[in-house]
Amino acid sequence: MNIQVIAPSACVDAEPIQLAQQHLQQFAVNTILSPNIFAQHRYLAGTIEQRINDLKQACEDPNIDAIWCGRGGTGAAQLLPYLDHWILNKPIIGYSDSTVLLNYVARLGGQALHAPVFQEIAVKNLNDVMQISSNAQEVLALLNPVLQQQKNHYPVQPLNTHAQSTKTISGKILGGNLATLCSLQGTAWALRLDQPSILLLEDVGEPYYRLERLLVQLLQSIDLNHLQAVVLGDFYHCPQKNVPQSIAEIFAEHLDPLKIPMYLGDWFGHGENNRPFWIGKEAHLQQTNLLI
């Protein structure tokens, strides 16, 4: 398998990128670093032209099987006006700031895998015997064309009465980083729910009042008739300060009046565990089990 690593967002760190490249060889994975992977333009991984050229080149290279984003941060939204049909040629892997690319690709019917960025996979969520994280190994498994035809199981926990009383929910998987999604609302690339959808949300470092504001903005800017359920991931290092309610309790105040089931799925986000899942795929949610 040939995977090309790109940097569509913030500057990447060379050491963890090269370490991951080295360790993936034991899985028969050949990783190619894009020409501008270590470029720097302010806090970004190169200019818009450099980043879009790397992305397009990887998408159009017939020898590349998948494209893995090196890091999140900021900047991927700057590339959206320059994307064309070539973005659908290969699976795109990433999360956080890459949320904008994943949901764009998914909306057009391409393959978008919400998963750890490349510079994390050899330094995060490891144990004494693994040099590559279990999440990264699951990414490689999901890229197998045979396994892509199968449903994958993810545990969830009902968080409100609407989730507890609903037996089965079906819908298209959308979502990712809440703040990044909200940054696109009001633009031509805003998140759209044009069919029954299940929204998975996570975030990092945002205080509770901002998270509530972001959720309200998102709910006010999408078609709620198509929102079948919300699954909360890991809201990692989000300072609670003196707020007595949890994130789930705050979000429930806005979702309960809309009769939208809410679930906990703390296996994805910026924390130690970030299991990969396909955005854009049809899924089925059954009480404590999400099938994607």
TrEMBL record:
Domain LD-carboxypeptidase C-terminal: 170-285
InterPro entries noted in UniProt: Carboxypeptidase_A_C_sf, Class_I_gatase-like, LdcA_N, Peptidase_S66_N, Peptidase_S66C, S66_fam
GO molecular function, one term: serine-type peptidase activity
Catalytic residue list: 96 (nucleophile), 202 (charge relay system), 270 (charge relay system)
UniProt-listed PANTHER family: MURAMOYLTETRAPEPTIDE CARBOXYPEPTIDASE, MUREIN TETRAPEPTIDE CARBOXYPEPTIDASE
Domain of life of the native organism: Bacteria
Pfam family name, one: Peptidase_S66C
Family: Belongs to the peptidase S66 family.
Protein's UniProt name: LD-carboxypeptidase
Entry keyword set: Carboxypeptidase, Hydrolase, Protease, Serine protease
Native source organism of the sequence: Acinetobacter populi
Domain named LD-carboxypeptidase N-terminal: residues: 3-114
Gene3D superfamilies per the UniProt record, alphabetical: Class I glutamine amidotransferase-like (3.40.50.10740), LD-carboxypeptidase A C-terminal domain-like (3.50.30.60)
GO biological process, one term: proteolysis
Lineage of origin: Bacteria, Pseudomonadati, Pseudomonadota, Gammaproteobacteria, Moraxellales
